[in-house]
């Protein structure tokens, strides 16, 4: 049995869920569950630039391995005669896995790793200083439209019958 078939089988998922529930139960009975402050610190670490790089790297790896598995699966189906090489659904699946899923996660990881400062929030940068460029928080008001029959700025509206 290959690894892909093992991971995608239903008993594997039930076994994994059972192991998580068993681990949680054992930790709860021994008083070893994490405290609220440690969970908050962990969330803060994951929400940092380094945490984002780790998450995006993990998802890039998952999507890359899924793309490789899909390529091999589709080649096997084509050899068996169950799929044609010009199948549109197959091409869309390959395009999504390689372009959107892996490409999106990997490009986002590269963007995070580029070292650029994030955009200003509420008019201030991460260091608390005001950036060189500022924009107004209120949008420009459109000109008021006068109701029909009312003259505006010296331009009289002709009455009906006069042209």
Describe the SSE topology.
Layout (H helix, E strand, L loop, with lengths): L2 H5 L2 H20 L6 H11 L2 H32 L7 H26 L50
In whole angstroms, the N-to-C terminal distance is 88 Å
What form results from the Cα inertia axes?
Answer: flat
Largest sheet: none
Compute the number of strand runs.
0
Topology order in helix (H) and strand (E) letters: HHHHH
Strand content: under 5%
Report what the structure shows:
This protein is mostly helical and 163 residues long. Among the domains are: 1-33; 46-113. It has helices at residues 3-7, 10-29, 36-46, 49-80, 88-113. α4 (49-80) runs antiparallel to α5 (88-113). The longest helix is centred in the middle third of the chain and has 32 residues, at 49-80. It is flat and about 70 Å long. It starts with a helix and ends in a 50-residue tail after the last helix. The mean pLDDT is 76.
List the main descriptive attributes of the protein structure presented here.
163 residues; mainly alpha; single chain; flat
Concise structural overview:
By secondary structure, the chain is mainly α. It is 58% helix and 0% strand.
């Amino acid at each position: 049995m290959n690894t892909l078939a093992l991971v995608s089988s239903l008993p594997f998922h039930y076994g994994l869920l059972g192991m998580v529930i068993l681990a949680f139960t054992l930790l709860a009975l021994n008083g070893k569950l994490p405290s609220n402050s440690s969970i908050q610190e962990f969330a803060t670490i994951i929400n940092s630039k380094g945490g984002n790089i780790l998450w995006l790297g993990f998802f890039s790896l998952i999507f890359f391995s899924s793309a490789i598995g899909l390529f091999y699966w589709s080649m096997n189906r084509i050899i068996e005669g169950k799929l044609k090489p010009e199948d549109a659904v197959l091409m869309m699946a390959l395009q999504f896995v390689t372009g959107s899923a892996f490409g999106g996660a990997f490009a986002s990881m590269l963007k995070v790793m580029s070292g650029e400062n994030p955009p200003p929030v509420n008019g201030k940068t991460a260091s608390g200083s005001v950036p060189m460029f500022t924009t107004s928080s209120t949008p420009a008001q459109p000109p008021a439209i006068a109701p029909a029959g009312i003259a505006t700025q010296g331009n009289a509206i002709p009455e009906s019958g006069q042209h």
